[in-house]
Design a protein that fits this description.
43% of the residues lie in helices and 18% in strands. It is built from eleven helices and twelve strands. With 294 residues, it is of the alpha/beta class. The chain is elongated and about 75 Å long.
């Protein structure tokens, strides 16, 4: 059409109150116009996942798509009205991954996925947890710390990153020649349980406490200060998945995973896959995370 004709059509559409029929457009394009997002239910309220979701929404918006959050349990016969999906920290053999892969939905796994449907995962996006965690541990060692305690959430989360965090911790301690203690805690610890965890840390003589979940370092900080322990002097406290509040505490050594940028990057990667960009397939690193030493 000529520019003049297009202008007349647009003017008429505006005058008549015409609205685009998305269903008709999707039939013509073969697209739904929406990306799916699945977060682990046990950790959905952690700040990381909320910020990740906002970042993914920005990425979906840039790709002219909506973002649909999957929350209900997966029915094997469920149909997914999305062009592609992002699954964050999937547990091995996760039902959502199995269902999406069987439905032929392009899928980005944030964090490694292992299990049924693994071969059908279009791409994996990972932060360099291992490298960054080692950097944080080495910084604490240089401060003279020699009895390290990891507060792990692997039992509750079951995600690959939680398992990798514990593996990296044990490996680094062995290489550094220092004792390692791992205490498994709940993904949603309360203040009273933080006090009980502190008693366990004290029993092991820990002088560097590494927290493997958002908000845990903040709870431990309260328990430590209530007990008269001076953070940065008597004991160092670190988080390998820092919350916004933990990022603001300059006494803590933190791993900032930049969840908003992480989510946006995942959506950008999915958009490329949906558009048929084969260079988007396979493994990718998210380079936005960083360590800040307290």
């Amino acid at each position: 059409f000529s520019p003049e004709t297009a202008e007349r059509v647009h003017a008429a559409a505006e005058r008549l109150g015409y609205a685009i029929n998305r269903s008709a457009r999707s039939l013509r394009s073969g697209r739904v116009g929406s990306f799916g997002l699945h977060l682990p239910a046990v950790a959905r309220r952690l700040p990381f996942y909320a910020e990740f979701a906002f970042g993914a929404a920005d990425g979906a918006d840039a790709a002219h798509s909506d973002l649909t959050l999957f929350t209900r349990e997966v029915d094997p016969a469920r149909r997914f009205a999305v062009d592609g999906a992002i699954v964050v920290d999937p547990a091995p053999d996760a039902d959502i991954v199995v269902a999406l892969s069987r439905a032929g939905i392009p899928l980005v796994s944030v964090g490694a996925y292992r299990g049924i449907g693994e071969a059908e995962v279009s791409a994996t996006l990972d932060a360099r947890h291992d490298v960054l965690q080692r950097e944080a541990l080495t910084a604490l060692r240089r401060r003279g710390r020699n009895r390290f305690v990891l507060l792990s959430m692997r039992r509750d989360l079951g995600a690959a990153w939680a398992e990798q965090t514990e593996h990296t911790f044990r490996s680094w301690c062995a290489e550094a020649g220092v004792p390692s203690v791992v205490i498994d805690v709940s993904a949603a610890p309360a203040t009273q349980s933080a006090t009980a965890v502190l008693a366990e840390v004290t029993r092991h003589g820990g002088d560097a406490v590494v927290c493997a979940g958002q908000g845990l370092a903040q709870l431990m900080r309260v328990a430590l200060e209530t007990s008269g322990v001076r953070i940065g002097e008597d004991l160092d406290l670190a988080s390998v998945a820092a919350s916004p509040a933990e990022m603001l505490d300059g006494r803590l050594t933190v791993l900032d995973l930049a969840p908003g940028a992480y989510g946006e990057r995942a959506a950008e990667l999915l958009a490329r896959i949906v558009d048929g960009d084969r260079t988007a397939l396979g493994h990718h690193w998210f380079e936005g995370a960083a360590v800040r030493v307290g």
